[in-house]
Design a protein that fits this description.
Chain lengths: 491, 496
């Protein structure tokens, strides 16, 4: 386990030295276009191998690429959503031999990408710089086949099959600056990026299907030192793996450096089962991609009008939505991250505007509305529900029951509460029950009275639990606590 | 209609077929007969499409019989360079690596020709992947010059030039990256045209150097090339580098002459390294222009002297990338010599690729792939490829300046007449063949070679150069030269 302190520094358990983790993320996302980047083949995941192919995406001799307009549109949406500048760009060829690449070069953008210099704000306010977001084509997919036990691994394979359905699927690679210092922020960054991509309709951003892939450039250094040698971690298929891979890699590099060794700049693959990174290609055989301008395509120079139209069409982005809701609820933006992530911020805002108590509205959405259909809840009904709670007409438990029924039936809370026979419990009735429980459990009460604040908080659960039992959940927990406090003061 | 006279030019054939005066099948059969009689002496073709040609011709005849119009090239036999994709018909680029590959689609030009009623009679030989100036670099054997079979036809479109010179077809298509249409046209005594870059779609042309490649026609007469170009030029949405606007039709103004035109002789291409017999014919052409009312002067395009050097960095650089796809994975040759590795496990994909490319490519192709790979490599890019791009810009700028003073430019097409088979073995000497033609490719301009006399019985072509989209004016000048020196008749006449 890596210990990270308040300054985001890692303290080595062996030497006690302090280390700083530096992470830069490169995220590839497949664009949600109808067709591929340079031909009219469907851009579709999961079809029979080699069915969505044509002379162009198979790179047959004589075929030529024609850029899909929707690709540029979506790439610019991504750029603008990440606060990037859209610049005139050119396509380049990245040359290397690999069987999943039909032309043995990848059409990408090199020194003149479409989107440059932007940023992304995480829910906790941390800002990650975006170096560029460029357009490129995806490759096909290799499947390594072996009869032995090492199925799927290239080294044990007897032969390999290639599926070119994915070849020519449009990608945008979002290159983040090495601003990230913790694995938590790395995960939050990818999570936020996914939320943005979904919000703007640019990608379905599914890490498990590979439509969103994150590579992490990881290095460590002593605070204040120049950047250390980095390793690029690939094959990370979930947010959890991303966090684990970064933590493992940081630990590995610190161990190496502390034992007097050096870091080799290399690509490493995350091994999910083994919980470790393994070396891939090393610097020694690092490729020289011989980039040069793609002569089969013309430069791209989107007009100011086109860019303006994209800005106009962008929806309110997650960060803005968080800040809007946070402002309305008078809380920190990080407190409403979940609400926005679930797309229930609109409901929350409307319920608060309709007069609902902000704290209870947010609380219900966070804890009691992780259900289907929650987004269609009438905000006025939610506001009415929390008002009933505040007024003591419903206990927290009753409110939860009513809320579930509201989602299921669409009825207003008063009607549901009446139908269920929920009525506010008389205080004197509740006092009698509490007193009875104190009398029945004198030892526990003595402990309660003798405990400090912290211990008392723990023990109060025992009494509220008993009260709930006795009232079949109809009692208001806060009221019970108030009675307990009153009795304590009198004892 | 069998037995009626078969015309020799494409224009005359199309007119006769459209008018029902001669059948397309007769036209095609007459040409196939010439091919069958003399192809062994020339080896213009990688494949002669007897059945395909007869079936296509029969279709043309049915259209005529039904009262329809097959199009402006009705029944015209045409030979296609074997780097143009033809659906279901082998397209080899004269390379072992593509031997037997049958494209699942037609090149745009092939579709356009078919739509105009033309009949493809064969796929012509070339220097492998269009890399060469003699058609000796073919994996399937050299093509010989029909004017003198001891000589090369030039290259890389030597098969297409030879096919027209021999009389195998009145017209053919080639591709020109640095002179591959014009130089063989000059050697074989036929008209050869490299259009403005982007005027003719490259879709379906197997790429050598994408930013330089253009498809263009060969023919015995200037009019026939105009006819072909009017059919194959035009915007193609499948080629992103295709010019959006249509080329102005050439045929209507073909006879407009050069009266009042300003024509400049490119002085940088008239000196060292050019055979005096060739420069003499260029001077004679200038005189013919003057006689026809043009103002002829001396033009200077200083940067053209760096053209060859820039070209031999840019073209191989693009080729090294364009030819990467021939890796044995998807089509064409694959060398899987597992037997050679007994006991040491199966070959890796990288080993298979290397073995395939080693066996599949010829020496010149390998030389250019290595040259281009080097020129693009980290640490060398700026000194080589980057600098070549700057020269390219300079050449375009110098041409622009020259075209402020002149409507057209004039130069030799090739430094000499056709040389003997096997006479040039040094690659650099071979590259010098393209010194006069390369600059136009780098600038993206049109240029054409027009036969203008002979020396020691071998044809000499002169080159007319024009600014981008200047084809109609260029063709007017070509027609003037043709009027001054009659075109050479094909070596073997079609039986009448």
């Amino acid at each position: 386990m890596t210990v990270v302190d308040r300054d985001n520094l890692i303290t080595s358990p062996t030497t006690g030295d302090q280390w700083e983790l530096v992470v830069g993320l490169e995220v590839h996302c497949e664009l949600a276009t109808a067709t591929k980047i340079f031909c009219s083949c469907p851009n579709q995941f999961g079809d029979e191998p080699n069915t969505n192919v044509c002379p162009v995406c198979l790179g047959l001799p004589g075929s030529l690429p024609v850029l899909n307009h929707q690709v540029v549109e979506l790439a610019m949406r991504i750029g603008r959503a990440l606060q990037c500048t859209v610049e005139p760009s050119v396509f380049a060829r990245k040359n290397y031999f690999y069987p999943d690449m039909p032309k043995d070069y990848q059409v990408s953008q090199y020194d003149k990408p479409t989107n440059v210099e932007g940023f992304l704000d995480l829910p906790d306010g941390f800002r990650v710089g975006i170096e560029r977001a460029h357009i490129e084509e995806d490759t096909g997919k290799n499947t390594h086949v072996s009869s032995g036990s090492g199925g799927g691994r290239i080294h044990d394979a007897e032969y390999s099959l290639v599926d070119y359905n994915r070849a020519g699927v449009p990608l945008v690679e979002i290159v983040g600056k090495p601003d990230i210092r913790t694995s938590e922020h790395a995960k939050a960054y990818v999570d936020e990026l996914r939320a943005i991509l979904l919000a703007i309709g640019a990608s379905d951003a599914k890490m498990e299907e590979g439509s969103m892939r994150a590579d992490a450039n990881v290095s460590v250094r002593h605070p204040g030192d120049p950047l250390g040698k980095r390793c690029e971690i690939k094959n990370v298929n979930s947010l959890r793996s991303l966090g684990r891979a970064i933590e493992y890699e940081a630990r590995r590099q610190i161990d190496l450096l502390e034992s007097g060794e050096t870091i080799r700049q290399e690509t490493r693959h995350w091994d999910e089962e083994g919980g470790r990174t393994r070396p891939g290609r090393s610097k020694e055989d690092a490729d020289d991609y011989r980039y040069f301008q793609e002569p089969d395509l013309v430069p791209l120079d989107p007009s100011a009008e086109w860019i303006a139209a994209i800005d106009e069409s962008l929806p309110t982005l997650p960060a803005q939505r968080r800040s809007l809701l946070a402002q309305a609820a008078a809380v920190d933006p990080s407190a409403v991250a979940l609400h926005v992530a679930r797309g229930l911020d609109g409901l929350a805002l409307a319920a608060i505007e309709a007069g609902g108590d902000a704290g209870r509205v947010l609380n219900h959405i966070e804890h009691n509305l992780a259900v289907e259909g929650a987004e269609s809840l009438d905000p006025a009904h939610l506001a009415a529900l929390v008002t009933m709670e505040v007024q003591g007409d419903l206990t927290a438990t009753q409110a939860k029951t009513v809320l579930a029924e509201m989602v299921a039936s669409g009825n207003d809370p008063a009607t549901i509460a009446a139908a269920k026979g929920f009525e506010a419990m008389d205080t004197s009735e509740l006092e009698a029950i509490v007193d009875g429980i104190i009398a029945d459990n004198p030892d526990d009460w003595a402990k309660y009275v003798g405990a400090d604040d912290k211990g008392r908080k723990k023990l109060s659960g025992f009494f509220t639990g008993k009260v709930m039992q006795a009232t079949k959940g109809q009692a208001d927990g806060k009221a019970v606590n108030a009675i307990l406090a009153h009795r304590l003061a009198a004892s | 209609m069998s037995g009626s006279a078969v015309p020799t030019t494409a224009a005359a054939i199309a007119n006769a077929v459209r008018a029902g005066e001669v059948s397309a099948v007769d036209v095609v059969d007459a040409h196939l007969a010439v091919i069958d009689a003399h192809e062994a002496e020339v080896h213009a073709f990688n494949e002669v499409l007897h059945d395909h040609a007869r079936a296509t011709a029969a279709e043309v005849d049915r259209t005529v019989a039904a009262g329809g119009d097959p199009g402006p090239l009705a029944g015209v036999p045409i030979a296609l360079k074997d780097n143009l994709c033809t659906r279901g018909i082998a397209t080899t680029c004269s390379s072992k690596i593509l031997e037997g590959w049958r494209p699942p689609y037609d090149a745009t030009v092939v579709q356009l020709l078919a739509g105009a009623g033309a009949v493809a009679v064969g796929k012509t030989n070339l220097d492998e992947f269009a890399m060469g100036s003699s058609t000796e670099n073919s994996a399937f054997g050299a093509t010989r010059n029909p004017r003198d079979t001891a000589k090369v036809p030039g290259g890389s479109s030597g098969g297409s030039a030879a096919a027209v010179a021999a009389g195998f077809a009145p017209v053919s298509l080639g591709s020109d990256t640095g002179g591959s249409i014009r130089q063989p046209a000059s050697f074989c005594g036929v008209v050869g045209v490299k259009p403005t870059y982007g005027a003719v779609s490259r879709y379906g042309l197997v790429a050598f150097a994408s930013s330089l490649d253009q498809i263009g026609p060969f023919s015995a007469t200037v009019e026939d090339s105009a006819l072909i170009l009017d059919v194959i030029a035009g915007h193609d949405p499948r080629d992103s580098t295709s010019i959006p606007e249509a080329l102005v039709p050439i045929t209507p103004t073909l006879g407009d002459g050069v009266d009042g035109l300003r024509i400049g002789i490119v002085s940088e291409l008239m000196g060292e390294g050019i055979d005096p017999a060739v420069t003499a014919r260029v001077q004679a052409a200038a005189e013919a222009f003057e006689a026809a009312g043009a103002k002829v002067g001396e033009a200077s395009v200083p940067a053209v002297t760096y053209g060859l050097s820039a070209y031999y960095l840019i073209a191989p650089a693009e080729a090294s990338s364009n030819l990467a796809r021939y890796d044995g994975v998807r089509y064409g040759l694959r060398v899987d010599a597992t037997a050679d590795r007994q006991g040491s496990g199966p070959w890796t994909t990288a080993e298979m690729m290397a073995a395939t490319r080693t066996a599949g490519f010829g020496a010149e192709v390998k030389r250019r792939i290595m040259l281009g790979t080097y020129a693009l490599s980290a640490g060398y890019y700026d000194a080589y490829y980057g600098k070549a791009l700057k020269v390219r810009t300079l050449i375009a700028r110098d041409f622009d300046a020259a075209y402020e003073q002149f409507d057209l430019l004039l130069s030799p097409t090739a430094p000499s007449t056709a040389f003997g088979l096997g006479d040039v073995s040094d690659p650099l000497t071979m590259y010098l063949n393209d010194v006069c033609t390369i600059p136009t490719n780098l600038a993206g301009h049109p240029a054409m070679s027009v036969p203008f006399g002979t020396a020691d019985g071998l044809p000499i072509g002169v080159q007319i150069l024009a600014p981008a989209l200047g084809e109609p004016t260029m063709f007017r000048a070509a027609a003037v030269l043709e009027a001054a020196v009659a075109p050479l008749a094909p070596t073997w006449e079609v039986a009448r």
